[in-house]
Amino acid sequence: MKHELNKNLKLTLMLVALSIVVLLVIFWTIEYPIRIPNSHPRAEFMGPRPSRPTPGDIELFYTVKTVISSINVMLLIFLLIGYIDIYRKTKSEFTIGLLIFSMTLLLYALSSNPLIHWLFGFRAFGLGPFAMLPDLFACVALSILLYFTIKY
Hints:
By secondary structure, the protein is mostly helical. It has one domain.
């Protein structure tokens, strides 16, 4: 009974932390919307431009990408904590592999997050919905992995 209560408390704390991060990221993207630059530095080498998407679409896609990428970072932090806990109990080499795998995915999630790009002075543009699809697939995979980590 106490073990189930502990799992439920962990799950509740994770959901609260995820909700807070999502809200903070959404408020940040409202405050600092991602804008399409007027020209690209290498525009003369790119050839003619295709027709422009509806204004606001690209900002929406990158806002969604920012939220999903931030969720991925939080899920990976939870996974790392879970794997560290499992390693302390079992001292399994497989768990070390999972820790390395999670840390590598955490670096990927951090480096693909538009917030990090913005902090270093880069601006995102031009991929439309394809900007967020890889992060969405990673989010689904990480959610499944976290579910099984908490369950067992």
